[in-house]
Write a structure and sequence with these properties.
Elements: H1 5-19, E1 21-22, H2 32-38, E2 49-50, E3 53-54, H3 60-76, E4 82-84, H4 90-101, E5 107-111, H5 127-131, E6 133-137, H6 147-157, E7 161-165, H7 175-184, E8 188-192, H8 197-201, E9 214-218, E10 229-233, H9 238-245, H10 255-268, H11 271-293, E11 297-298, E12 307-311, H12 321-329, E13 333-334, E14 336-338, E15 352-356, H13 358-362, H14 367-386
Parallel strand pairs: 1-13, 5-6, 5-7, 7-8, 8-9
Antiparallel strand pairs: 2-3, 4-10, 9-10, 11-12, 12-15, 14-15
Helix pairs in contact: 2-10, 3-10, 4-9, 6-7, 11-14, 12-14
Length: 387
């Protein structure tokens, strides 16, 4: 029956998730309550505009919901920054932040994609790269963000906006120093904490609040919630941010997703969540240390957060990140190929992989389980080098 096709595919994906060791650093497993909110009648409601200023009638309930969601997220990050809960994704949040603060052609200074940056931080094939002049800072010889390079590039290029944040970076980001450099050079600071937001919320990573002018984050990844995003900003940019999002970059907000974001915030405020994040970091450090012990090169030599990168350039020069990803996929272990500092291969091949511990920690994995998985991955990589 044609009507059953979609649900058959959903069931197959559920089976895949149930039977796979999930090590993709940007994935996680949400609670039943998040799923319930996301699948609710709120998907029926159009609510263009903002609470108290909608373009449609019948918005009294969703007005209350959106305000509640906003307040909860301010509590999660213990902040009085303005928050907009309508962004649909991390990239949408970033594009909105740029539109609020910049004009086309303005200069953005961000971390190079090859060194752990994100597509939406200015890759030429992204709209950000087409609309803005992108300059990059890089990493030092140990693989850490080179703050001297940030300083030098800020002086040289005089950007309007500096982005502190990454997609594949395993160390603490010094938001205070970033803010000092940005403001000394007449730039605003944007912190993209999509990956580490759960750690910031639980006090396991220094907070950008109080330092950055604007902060974007996704709500999945380490926040373990619905696949969506948020924008926070200092109060003086609130009106610019809100109008950049609507009517600038979006129509009606997804109220069912906003409900699920509110549930995500409620969950992030619990002691259980803080304990969970501590385990995520502990598991990540233990797994990275085990790979080092087995002779692998871990970028920066370890991790401070929920992820780390393996660099095969010197230890396994004949294999690519793509080969490892595919070999593991066929054995029910999921991770992603990833460029490494000084990458010589294409983004479709890469010389490394990225490993994250947030998802399997949700499923109850502890240090011993992650160490066992590291050995399983080593066996598979070793068999690849023999082929």
């Amino acid at each position: 029956d044609i009507m059953d096709k979609v649900f058959e595919l959903i069931q197959r994906e559920q089976n895949r998730q149930n039977s796979t060791i999930e090590l993709i650093a940007s994935e996680n497993f949400v609670s039943e309550n998040v799923l319930k909110a996301a699948g609710s009648c709120l998907t029926n409601k159009y609510a263009e505009g903002y609470p108290g200023r909608r373009y449609y009638g019948g918005c009294e309930v969703v007005d209350e919901l959106e305000e509640y969601c906003r307040q909860k997220w301010q509590q999660v990050f213990a902040t009085d920054y303005h928050v907009n809960v309508q962004p649909l994704s991390g990239t949408h949040a970033n594009m909105t932040a740029y539109a609020a603060l910049l004009r086309p052609g303005d200069t953005i200074l961000s971390l190079d994609l090859q060194m752990g940056g994100h597509i939406s931080h200015g890759l030429p094939i992204s709209m950000t790269g087409r609309l803005y002049n992108i300059e990059h800072y890089g990493l030092d010889s140990r693989g850490y963000i080179d703050m001297r390079s940030v300083e030098d590039m800020a002086k040289k290029t005089r950007p309007k906006l500096i982005i502190a944040g990454a997609s594949a970076y395993s160390r603490i980001i010094d938001f205070e120093r970033f803010a000092h450099i940005a403001h000394e050079n007449g730039a605003l600071l944007m912190a993209d904490i999509a990956h580490i937001a759960g750690l910031v919320a639980a006090g396991e990573h220094p907070s950008p609040f109080g330092h950055a002018d604007i902060i974007t984050t996704t709500t999945h990844k380490t926040l373990r919630g619905i696949r969506s995003a948020l924008i926070f900003c200092k109060q003086e940019y609130a009106r610019k941010v809100d109008s950049a999002l609507f009517p600038g970059m979006a129509g009606g907000p997804h109220m069912h997703t906003i409900a699920a974001k509110a549930v995500t915030a409620e969950e992030a405020l619990t002691p259980e969540f803080r304990a969970y994040i501590r385990r995520v970091v502990e598991n990540s450090r233990a797994m990275a240390a085990e790979f080092t012990r087995m002779g692998y090169e871990v970028v920066t030599g370890g991790t401070d957060n929920h992820m780390f990168l393996l660099d095969f350039t010197h230890t396994h020069p004949t294999i690519t990140g793509q080969m490892v990803q595919q070999a593991l996929d066929s054995r029910a272990i999921t991770l992603n190929k990833n460029s490494v500092p000084g990458e010589k291969r294409s983004p479709m091949q890469t010389s490394g992989v990225r490993i994250g511990t947030a998802a399997m920690t949700t499923k109850g994995f502890g240090v011993d389980d992650f160490i066992a998985v590291a050995h399983r991955i080593d066996e598979i990589i070793t068999s690849l080098t023999r082929e």
